[in-house]
Specification:
Blueprint: E1 17-22, E2 34-39, E3 44-49, H1 57-68, E4 73-80, H2 86-104, E5 111-118, H3 125-137, H4 144-150, E6 159-167, E7 170-179, E8 192-197, H5 203-215, E9 232-237, H6 251-273, E10 281-289, H7 292-304, H8 306-313, H9 319-327, E11 340-343, E12 346-350, E13 353-354, H10 360-367, E14 371-377, E15 383-390, H11 394-401
Parallel strand pairs: 4-5, 8-9, 10-14
Antiparallel strand pairs: 1-2, 2-4, 3-9, 6-7, 7-8, 10-15, 11-12, 11-14, 12-13
């Protein structure tokens, strides 16, 4: 179950990036579950990772390796998170990195590992190691679609986006994939995201761009309020484009950043559209706040309310649940008479209560839609923030109740 049509684009190949996909039987016998990215020598790489204290072994190792050596390979497995596995998990992640390093002739620290799947189970190292030659033999510049499939867990469809930008008369390409459908309230990025460009960008600036882009995209989505142990997002710049180097303070960088942000938002929204059991795609927009923290606090309180989310699933215009969530969001000295709340174009709350022109029929018309905006104006400042979420369905409960069976 997912909202909207979905589907993958015709990806732009990124010179200096090759992808290989294999079926190694980690959890299912005939499913793509192992992906290798090969990065050209000289590429710059930036990363952001989960802030969950129980972060997975591959997250710990990727952060260490990223500081030690310019990455040459990304190694991703699905079906097993290698999280909550203690010292054994670190040993297993290291073993997999060493196996790929040996096959490719690079230092072990030039391999960044990523895992997603069930928490608390031992990583099937033998299956991964045995699958590496197949993934390496499949390396090519074009199989972004196969890689998008190879990183899925409970996702019902692969997720990807691509861009071509004219900078100074030269093309710069960007392509990216993401995965995630549940345990989504990232505190940095998404469960897994990989984006590459052939632009020439030095590492420190690339890291700044990644943080800014994830803050306005993957850090603005929530399915269920849970932050994964494995969240990781990687941005690679190979420098293979003929366009000039992108530098701070230039129009060229601003043009590139706008397109990069748009791609990140597309990938983030694809996760929400494919949220576990989702039947609605919901934008929660808070205007008129005094601060970003205040705006996001109200938005997330509404988006995380089980009563609001179940009303959305039932297409029930129970506007009182939204009003109550705004009221308990912890905003000091709220002027209730100044607050307005809309469902799309329909005003449901004004002057401290139900809007005088609101009718159940108009509310029902909006709630029957597959895509809905909840617009909340606090009437106390100039700050605006938007997050994206889903409803809460019977199917979400079923998926997560039966996840390990």
């Amino acid at each position: 179950m997912a909202v909207g049509k979905g589907g993958l684009p015709e990806f732009n190949a990124i010179s200096g990036v090759r992808l290989g996909v294999a079926k190694s039987g980690i959890k299912y016998p005939d499913r793509k579950d192992l992906v290798v990215f090969e990065l050209a020598e000289g590429a710059t790489t930036a990363g952001v990772f989960t802030k969950n204290a129980f972060c997975a072994a591959p997250v710990v190792l990727s952060k260490e390796h990223l500081k030690a050596t310019p990455p040459r390979y990304l190694l991703i497995n699905t079906g097993n998170a290698n999280a909550g596995t203690g010292a054994q998990g670190m040993e297993d992640a290291t073993h997999c990195c060493q196996a790929l390093a040996t096959l490719t002739g690079v230092p072990q620290t030039a391999v960044l590992p990523f895992s997603t799947g069930v928490i608390g189970e031992k990583l099937p190292v033998e299956s991964i190691v045995e699958g590496l030659p197949c993934a390496l033999s499949a390396l090519n510049e074009t199989d972004w679609a196969g890689a998008a499939e190879g990183i899925m867990t409970t996702d019902t469809r692969p997720k990807g986006a691509t861009r071509c930008i004219d900078i100074a008369g030269k093309d710069i390409f960007i392509s990216g994939i993401s995965k995630g459908a549940g345990m989504i309230m990232p505190n940095m990025a998404t469960m897994l995201g990989f984006v590459a460009t052939d632009a020439n960008i030095e590492q420190a600036l690339l890291q700044d761009l990644l943080i800014e882009c994830t803050d306005s995209s993957f850090n603005r989505i929530t399915i269920d309020g849970d932050t994964s142990t494995n969240d990781s997002c990687i941005l690679v710049a190979t420098g293979r484009s003929d366009a000039p180097e992108l530098k701070k303070g230039t129009e060229e960088l601003e043009l590139f950043k706008a397109e990069l942000k748009a791609l990140f938002v597309e990938l983030a929204q694809a996760i929400v559209r494919d949220g576990e059991g989702a039947t609605k795609f919901v934008s929660v927009i808070v205007d008129g706040a005094n601060s970003q923290q205040e705006a996001l606090g109200v938005a997330y309180t509404v988006a995380h309310s089980p009563l609001v989310k179940t009303a959305l699933f039932a297409s029930d215009p129970n506007w009182g649940r939204i009003l109550a969530a705004v009221g308990r969001a912890g905003v000091d000295d709220l002027n209730l008479d100044a607050i307005t709340i809309h469902l799309d174009e329909v005003c449901i709350v004004s002057e401290g209560g139900r809007d005088a022109e609101y009718t159940e029929e108009r509310g029902q018309e909006v709630m029957n839609r597959e895509e809905i905006s909840i617009l909340i104006n606090l009437g106390r400042g100039q700050v605006s923030e938007t997050i994206w979420t889903t409803d809460l369905s019977h199917e979400y409960v079923t998926i997560n109740a039966e996840y390990r069976t």
